[in-house]
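Sorry, I am new here, but would you mind making up a protein's amino acid sequence and the tokens describing how it folds?
***
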Amino acid sequence: MENLFHLKEHNTNLRTEIIAGLTTFFTMAYIIFLNPTILGEGTPAGMSNTAVITATCIAAAIGTWLIGWLSNYPMAQAPGLGLNAVFSFTLCGAFGLSAGAALSAVFIAGIIFILLTVTGARTAIVKAIPLSLKKALGAGIGLFIALIGFVNAGFVVGEKTAATTVGMGSFANPAMLLALVGLLITVILVVAKVPAAFFISIIATSAIGCILQFVFGVQLGISAPTNWVPYLDFSMFGKCFTSFGDLLKAPVASLIATMITLVLVDMFDTIGTLIGAADKAGYLDENGNLPKIERAMLADAIATSTGAVMGTSTVTTYVESTSGISAGGRTGLTSTVTGLCFLLGLFLSPVVGLVPSAATAPILIVVGVMMCASLKDIDWSDIEVAIPCFLTVVGMPFFYSITDGLALGFIAYVIVKLAKGKFKEIHPLMYVIVGLFVIKYILAALTDLKIL
């Protein structure tokens, strides 16, 4: 272990690294139950719940090992929240791609990430985006995730009256009441800074739901397992290869929009998480840069393609890695332990039916709250900054699309700067990105008009 991870050099030991790895896993374990609610049965992606769990656990294990072994950082990876929403609600929902075709797009995006990382272009693209828009991007995704949580919980319903678009759900709905209890549990645990708060909340809320349904007869949509033998479902394995043809049949506008969405969203998510976690661990140098960041990003890129092969959405570095870092984790041995735990998570598949959406929805809402923390770093008193940032943030939940919110903000940024005559403040790559978005919408309009 010393030869592999240089424990003494990083002032740590085997016991500390194991505890840190376990801490990170239990902080992230909620994704095993949450990912099927975004990608599984009843969602636009419509994949088998057991297939999603199998792919989630294996992809998380491989991705976590990659980043730990390539960079020797105590980071962990798994299918990303927000990125799975892009997969299901944007690629499969808005663009109409099949789950297999969307996996093909994720696989290709992973290859693009690898090329961009190896050539250094990925870092250059990130630097081209104004810091304010990066902050707005994270907050916008947070609001979008929170909206999904509110809808899944039954707190928000569509068109209650002819005069409204959305409204508040009914407290006569037992699932909504259970979600409210789950939200209270989650908030209390998070505010009290209880380790693995999300995981504990899901288990506690599910337990309450099971008691209400199976003991008192309250119908909450919970499914009792038919058997307790772990079932590994590889039905989505390799679909990214067999579905390339379906992807190529998609409209040109959708193809362009798909790749722009996957590349941009994952790029910003990964960089922000890496820097944030590294800052917590004290890895940043005097200039605020992260040594070996290329290796960490390469691990992220490879994990994305690997996850697509397994059958899940984009794999990315988790901010929950900071929990293990706080517990003393300093090397890739922490990641090794976390990855092993995710493999053991495969045996949780029989109980997934016991976890209702009312138990996972509160997590989405609270994650949305946390992601909005970046709003404090935006100078709202500067109208040049406020307009594009505001449109980015509200566009995502209002349009129910991360891509469209992102595009609206980027286009607004360029227009505002051009209107002020501040041509030099616009990075050349921003013109390219905005140009691609404009082409996307033109092609979409031509497709709708049946010209293409």
